[in-house]
Each structure stands twice: as structure tokens, then as C-alpha cells.
Specification:
By secondary structure, this protein is of the alpha/beta class. The protein is built from 25 helices and 22 strands.
């Protein structure tokens, strides 16, 4: 039943989220009995548990019953309200604990109002639970039933566009003939044609030549080792298997397969359980060479438990091949058909985005239908509006969603805030998931960022995202129909405001997450329909085109006090109202024209992410930045700060700090970096001329920052002859020596260094991960460092070394290092650029390969 596919979906997951908050030790210690009555908290728990028991049944019945769908929306809305209120109570309790002062009467009144609101939410959830009989909702256990009819080995009709894939797989199978057992998986998203391709291979006479035993087993969602073993035995024994004991089953299968070449297809496999696979695979190790298990799966990691494993990623079909499938199922003549219908039909096929099952579904909906208006209806309607009984593609995509854990369901639906064909940045999306509290709780020793990375990789391995690489650019995209699925599941709680749709479509009072690509006019938010936003996110869908800046209505912030995500495209003056948004976790002000950030910004005690990239007019950060103790990401790339504010070393949660501008005072000097040992990714340290000596440089503990992969050390480059008469060159060398990075470093850039020679650490072969080095504007240097011994160095850039007159042997090999001689100099170098002063031409660098 297709209706069973969304069991355990968003509503059940949201209930669990609120329940987890209620029972967390932090909440209990700060709030329960101090701010909220214990009886009220218990009432809320009871109401949530009762609703959760009904939600499973409601999520099954929502597709066929509009009233049930409305009931679910009401429950989901109540859960958002409850979570927002509890979050606010918890934050205010924490603030009060820190301040430790007696609250004035007006604040006590505010607390009483909050309790009243929570009482209303509890009653609302209790009232919804009372509707169970009229909606015929029952308390059922979480479970599922498969949407699809079990597959068989028999081919159905003509297969279009898979000849090249079939030949590639046959070659892959033949290349494994020297192994006793090979596992090959055909990996692809739902509806792309994995089973069809496996049927072609299974029925290939040439491929089956020499195969002694073959079997086709449809495994589906639940991988039962005993049942699957039985089905394999039945497949190779003409349907006979009377055994039930697992040991006897495995012994029997081993006996049947021994010294036989077999070809077993396991179709529609979902399980990644290594223990189950290791147990199942044991009897298959005893076949003849060339024996193969062929899997079809939607998950990249299924089947990786054997030594000889290969996967084949099955891509979408071309529009022409999809058109052939559509025509076949619509009984539409490819020649002599209506040109008007063909034009509409090809537009319909384009919506399928290469999925043959979608082309088949839409073609069958128009079988023998020749009315233009009916074809236009199919073209204009959303695929989710078609009846489940007539559509295979809807449940085929829903089943992928069903198999996600609850936290991944939330993360996936969040992507509906972005337009189709959006180029997702993995790191940015993870930050938003973190701020929205969509991720699972970290395990001991695990960071939120690591959890987010695991979640993204998990969705990508299940083909919800596809990676695209262009030169140095890397991003992810989402298949059109997968994006449509996210939008459908998001319902009225997520809304994308665009120039095309914004004026036409009404916002819903249920909306909690709103993204915008263009200005939102005042009249769009003039009513009370948008007053409970949790997300107000600017999405730049055309990053390389600078069009009209997007603006927000002036009163939208004052209306929405529960915001957690807030980002702007255009902002000239920082609104005072932002300082009152104590629940904000993500604040995006990048590329804005803000000149001053007020101290009220530092009231945002829960702020985790602050984006200030390319704020060209911003030169100082607020003095109270050290109070943002929950800050995990501070991005100030391209922003001309004069110096860092005092006490940055107190921000021990910082995971990403793009830049550190060294100040001249003790409380904003480089020593503040010494406390920030959790920094990851890229770090740029500027104004190193403000570092007094090597000891001060060592206090930054750069060598202890084992997660920094890219480091830029930058001295301000002055004009004229001042470069030649700065600090003593010995001091400069000692300072750079004190800034030695950890050996995990991959990219090193040094700019404006004023010493004459480089310290010995630069060029040591122990920096085995270093792939790129740039040395710029080192105008006093008369000798190059020993870079030839960096084993992984691929890119080297050396520019503007005015005092460099020749390249010595030391450049190629560190003669002072006893272990350096066995390594060939510049073994991995592929790109090199050199531009120096008047005493050195570019030739030695441009022909570097010839010199080695």
C-alpha cells in the first residue's frame, strides 16, 4: 500500500523532538518547577505521547482523506508552537541564571503570559486527540508494507537507451571471472530502471553461457537473512526448500553452490547491516571462478562487505529515450501523430528529468487520450496530484523518503526552501541544519559539524543529492522530482517567495520557514498571516548575476520573535529589533552595507553562526563579541576589519573562524588564538606585523590546531622602501618559526613576510598532505625554502621576491634533513608560477620540470 510509506514521517519526528527537549537534563534543571509547573509539563508529555500514537495512523491515511491531512497540519502547527515556547522559556531561564537578579514585575508578568500560552497549546493537542474517533484514527505500531509488486526475472517489452549500460556491466562482469565471488551493485534512484537493466543481464544468453546455477530474488525493504537464503535455494532448486533451521539452510546452500558457477540477482536491496551481510554471504564463497551476485539498490554502500566489489551508477535517460517510453505507453504514433500533442508531450517528458518510470507513468495516464486539454492538464498538474492507483513514480520516490531516519527526513524537507536546480553548498546547508536543530544529537566526542557532515553524506549516498565537479568548483544538485517530493512533504509550513510566485500565491498562517530570492513587498506581510516564522532565509539563486537587491518589509522582524534563521541580501543599517531575537542561531549579513554593528548584537546568547563576508564598509566588530559563547562559525572573509575585538579566546565553541586580524593590545593580540583549539578548515591570520616576537607567535599554538587544512599568514604590504627596514630579519624569522602549523595542513600561503630566509619547518617532508604553496611579496627574501621535498605538492606559486637572485640546490632538496635524499624533488608538481624581481627571470619557474 502506497499510503503506508510515510509512517514515522515529519509529525512523529517532531513529537519526538519536543519530548526530547522536555526530558533533557538542561531543561529539567533550568525550567521545570522553577519556570513551569511540574503538572503542566506532565500534561504536555501525556498529550504528546497520545498524539504520537495516533500520528502513525494519520500519516498513513492522509493521502486519501483531506480531514486527516488537516488534522495532521493542526498537530504539526501546535508542535511548532510548543517547541518555540519551550525554547524561549529555556533561554530566558538561562539568562536569568547568569544575571542572578530579581525580576521586575513586568518580567514576572511576561513569564505568566508564557505559561498561559503553553497551557493553550497543551489543551489544543488534547482536543486534537479527542477527534480520533470521528477521524477513525487508531493507535498503531510504527511499521510499513512494501509499495511494489515483487519483481521477477522476466523482461517486459522494449528497453530504451540502456545498450551502453548493458555492455559496460557485461564487461565489468567478465573482468571478474578470475574471482570465486564478485558482488556488483547497480545503484540508482527510484524509477531510473535498475531492475529493468538487471532483467536484461539475467536473460542475456551470451552472459549466461557457462553459468551452472542462476536465481532471481526480490529482497525489498526488509532483508531477512533466513528468508532470503531460502529464496535463493528455491531459485536454484526449482522452487523446493523444506528446511527452516538456518544452519541447515546454509549447509544446504553451500553444498549446492560448491564448484558451480552461479549468477544470483538480489533485486531492490536496502539493508546496509554488515552483520546480516556477513552472515548471508558465507555459503557463496565456495563457488567456481566467475560466480557473481548482482544487486540493485538505491544506496551506494550496500554490498561492500566482500573483497571483490564493484558498483555501477545508473544515470538518467536522455529526453529522446524517455520520449520513446512515453509514446509506447501513451499509444501515441511516433510518425503521423498530432504535432500539437507531440509538442505538449515533449514538454511533459522533459519534466520526467530522465526517469523512465516517470515517463511510463505519465504516458499511461494519457493512453489513447487525444484531447489537447487533457494533455495540457497533465503538463500543468503537479505529479503528486495524480491518483496513487494510476501512478508508480509517486510511491517509487516516497519509499526512498520512508527509509530515511527521522532526522534525515527533516533535513531533506528543509531543502524545499531552495528553488529547482539550485547548486547546494554542503558546508552552508549543514550550518543551517545545525541552527534549525534538525540534526540528531551528537554522540560522545562527536561535534555537531561531524553529525551534519554524516547526514549530508548519508543523503548523498541514497542519491537525494548528486555531486557536480567543474574545474575547481564543486557543488551538489537535486533531481527535479526529488525536489518536487521535498516541496510536497513540506506542505504549507515551508514557503519560497519568488518574483514570479510572490504576488500570486497567498502565504499560509501555518508557514514557519520562508525563503526569498527577491524583495518581499510590504503588502505581502501586512496581515497577521506571518507572525510565527522560524526561518527568514535569503537565497541567492543566481550568484554570478548581480541584479536588484532583495529587501524585507520594515516590520517583519518585530512581528516574528521566534526566528532562529535570519539572513539578508540588502541591509544598510542594523535594526535594533534584531538584538531582541534571543532565539536566533544563524545571522547572515554578508555583502551588506552595514558600517556599524551595535553592542545589542552581543545579546544573542544562542547565536551559533554569524556571516559577515564581504561587508565592505564594516571595519570593527562589537566589543562584547566575547559574550557570544555559543558561536561556532564566524565568517569575515573579505571584510576590512582593522583588528579583532577583545577576548576572542573565550569563544571556545568556535569551529570556523575565517580570519583573525591581529591587534596591538594584549586582549586582542595573536595570543587569543591560543585558546581556540577546535578550529577547522581555513584560517587567515592578518596584520602579523603586530606580533612582537617568536614567543608571542608561539602563544597562538598554530601547531596544535590539528583540524586546520588551509592557512594564510599575512603581513601588511607597505609601499616604498619601508619593506626593507622593518623589524630585524632575525625577529621576523623567529615569528614565522613560531607560527609553524600542524602536519595535516594541505594549503599554505605566506604573503608579505619581511624576513631574509624562511624557517626550516617550511618544506619538511613530514608535511605529506600539503598540495599547494603560495609565497607572495616576500621582498626581503634572498633564498627560497626547501620545497622540493614536499611529496604531495601539486601547485606552487612564487611572486615578487625582489632580493632573490638565484635558485640554489636547497630549493629542490633539504640538505639539512638526513631523510630527505630518497625523495625525488617536486615528485607531484603539476602547476608552477614564478614572477620575481629584476634579478630573476620567470624562466627557471616556467621550465621547472626540465630542471628536476
Amino acid at each position: 500500500m502506497a499510503e503506508a510509506l510515510v509512517v514515522g514521517a515529519l509529525v512523529s519526528a517532531s513529537i519526538s523532538l519536543v519530548l526530547n527537549r522536555l526530558i533533557s537534563p538542561e531543561f529539567v534543571n533550568s525550567v521545570v518547577s522553577k519556570k513551569l509547573n511540574c503538572k503542566l509539563v506532565e500534561r504536555l508529555k501525556t498529550a504528546l505521547l497520545a498524539a504520537k500514537a495516533l500520528a502513525a495512523d494519520a500519516e498513513q491515511k492522509q493521502f486519501g482523506n483531506e480531514l486527516v491531512r488537516e488534522w495532521l497540519d493542526s498537530l504539526r502547527d501546535a508542535l511548532y508552537t510548543a517547541d518555540d515556547l519551550l525554547d524561549r522559556v529555556f533561554i530566558k531561564a538561562q539568562i536569568r541564571q547568569k544575571v542572578r537578579v530579581r525580576l521586575p514585575l513586568r518580567l514576572n508578568l511576561s513569564a505568566w503570559k508564557m505559561v498561559t500560552k503553553i497551557n493553550k497549546v497543551v489543551k489544543r493537542i488534547e482536543d486534537l486527540q479527542k477527534l480520533k474517533d470521528s477521524l477513525d484514527l487508531k493507535e498503531i505500531p510504527m511499521g510499513s508494507s512494501s509499495w511494489r509488486t515483487p519483481s521477477t526475472s522476466l523482461e517486459r517489452g522494449t528497453v530504451y537507451g540502456r545498450d551502453d549500460d548493458e555492455q559496460a556491466l557485461i564487461k565489468m562482469l567478465n573482468d571478474n571471472n578470475d574471482h570465486n565471488l564478485s558482488v556488483i551493485s547497480i545503484v540508482g534512484m527510484g524509477g531510473v530502471g535498475k531492475t529493468t537493466l538487471a532483467q536484461c543481464l539475467y536473460n542475456s544468453k551470451d552472459l549466461m553461457d557457462g553459468v551452472d546455477l542462476n536465481a532471481w530474488v526480490c529482497v525489498s525493504e526488509h532483508f531477512d537473512v533466513i528468508e532470503t537464503t531460502k529464496n535463493v535455494i528455491k531459485g536454484i532448486s526449482s522452487g523446493v526448500c523444506s528446511l527452516d533451521n538456518f544452519d541447515l539452510l546454509q549447509q544446504d546452500l553451500k553444498k549446492k553452490l560448491s564448484e558451480k558457477k552461479f549468477f544470483i540477482v538480489l533485486d531492490d536491496v536496502w539493508s546496509e547491516d554488515a552483520d546480516k551481510w556477513n552472515s548471508f554471504i558465507t555459503p557463496f564463497q565456495h563457488g567456481k571462478k566467475g560466480s557473481t551476485i548482482l544487486l540493485t539498490t538505491r544506496k551506494v554502500n550496500v554490498g561492500r562487505i566482500v573483497q571483490h566489489y564493484n558498483s555501477y551508477i545508473l544515470k538518467q535517460l536522455s529526453d529522446d529515450d524517455c520520449w520513446s517510453i512515453f509514446v509506447d505507453n501513451a499509444s501515441f504514433p511516433e510518425s503521423n501523430g498530432s504535432s500539437e500533442l507531440e509538442e505538449i508531450g515533449r514538454k511533459i517528458v522533459k519534466r520526467c528529468d530522465g526517469l523512465p518510470l516517470a515517463a511510463e507513468t505519465l504516458g499511461r495516464l494519457l493512453r489513447s487520450e487525444r484531447r489537447v486539454e487533457e494533455w495540457n492538464r497533465i503538463l500543468s498538474n503537479d505529479i503528486w496530484e495524480f491518483p496513487m492507483s494510476n501512478s508508480k513514480i509517486v510511491p517509487a520516490l516516497l519509499i526512498s523518503y520512508y527509509h530515511l531516519p527521522a532526522h534525515l527526513k527533516r533535513c531533506f524537507v528543509y531543502c524545499s526552501l531552495y528553488p529547482k536546480d539550485y547548486q547546494f553548498d554542503k558546508d552552508e546547508l549543514i550550518l543551517l541544519w545545525m541552527a534549525e536543530d534538525l540534526l540528531r544529537p551528537p554522540r560522545k566526542g562527536e561535534t555537531l559539524e561531524e553529525v551534519g557532515c554524516e547526514c549530508f553524506d548519508d543523503l548523498a549516498s541514497r542519491l537525494f543529492f548528486k555531486q557536480v565537479k567543474n574545474d575547481d568548483e564543486k557543488y551538489f544538485v537535486m533531481h527535479d522530482l526529488i525536489h518536487v517530493l521535498a516541496t510536497f512533504l513540506a506542505g504549507d509550513f515551508y514557503y519560497r517567495f519568488s518574483k514570479e510566485l510572490g504576488e500570486k500565491e497567498e502565504r499560509n498562517i501555518l508557514t514557519r520557514h520562508l525563503s526569498y530570492t527577491h524583495s518581499i513587498p510590504e503588502k505581502a506581510c501586512s496581515s497577521s498571516e506571518i507572525e510565527s516564522l522560524r526561518t527568514l532565509l535569503y537565497v541567492n539563486d543566481k550568484p554570478y548575476i548581480r541584479g536588484e537587491r532583495a529587501t524585507l518589509p520594515c516590520d517583519i522582524l518585530s512581528k516574528n520573535k521566534y526566528l532562529r534563521i535570519l539572513s539578508f541580501d540588502r541591509l544598510n543599517i542594523f535594526p535594533d529589533s534584531i538584538g531582541k531575537l534571543i532565539q536566533v542561531r544563524y545571522l547572515g549579513l554578508s555583502r551588506s552595507d552595514v558600517e556599524i554593528l551595535p553592542e545589542s548584537l552581543c545579546n544573542l546568547c544562542n547565536l551559533q553562526i554569524l556571516k559577515l563576508q564581504d561587508c565592505s564598509k564594516l571595519t570593527m566588530l562589537p566589543n562584547g563579541m566575547c559574550n557570544l559563547v555559543n558561536l561556532r562559525c564566524l565568517d569575515i572573509r573579505g571584510t576590512p576589519l582593522k583588528e579583532m575585538p577583545k577576548g576572542m579566546g573565550k569563544l571556545k565553541q568556535l569551529h570556523i573562524l575565517s580570519n583573525f586580524v591581529v591587534g596591538k593590545q594584549e586582549d586582542n593580540g595573536i595570543q587569543e588564538l591560543g585558546e581556540l583549539l577546535n578550529l577547522h578548515g581555513s584560517l587567515e591570520i592578518e596584520k602579523l606585523e603586530n606580533v612582537v616576537d617568536g614567543n608571542e607567535a608561539r602563544s597562538a599554538r598554530i601547531i596544535d590546531k590539528k583540524h586546520i587544512e588551509e592557512l594564510l599568514l599575512k603581513w601588511s604590504v607597505s609601499s616604498g622602501d619601508d619593506d626593507m627596514v622593518s623589524n630585524t630579519h632575525t625577529d621576523e624569522q623567529d615569528i614565522l618559526h613560531g607560527l609553524q602549523p600542524h602536519r595535516v595542513l594541505k594549503v599554505l600561503r605566506i604573503k608579505g613576510y619581511k624576513g631574509k630566509i624562511f624557517p626550516d619547518w617550511l618544506g619538511r617532508c613530514s608535511y605529506s598532505n600539503m598540495t599547494r604553496v603560495s609565497l607572495l611579496d616576500c621582498k626581503n627574501c634572498c633564498m627560497l625554502p626547501s620545497l622540493g621535498q614536499l611529496p604531495s605538492l601539486k601547485s606552487l606559486c612564487i611572486e615578487r621576491f625582489d632580493q632573490l637572485k638565484s635558485i640554489g640546490k636547497k630549493f629542490y632538496k633539504n640538505e639539512g634533513h638526513q631523510h630527505s635524499s630518497p625523495i625525488a624533488p617536486f615528485a607531484s608538481l603539476t602547476c608552477h608560477v614564478g614572477r620575481s624581481g629584476s634579478y630573476l627571470t620567470q624562466k627557471p619557474f616556467l621550465s621547472l620540470r626540465a630542471l628536476l
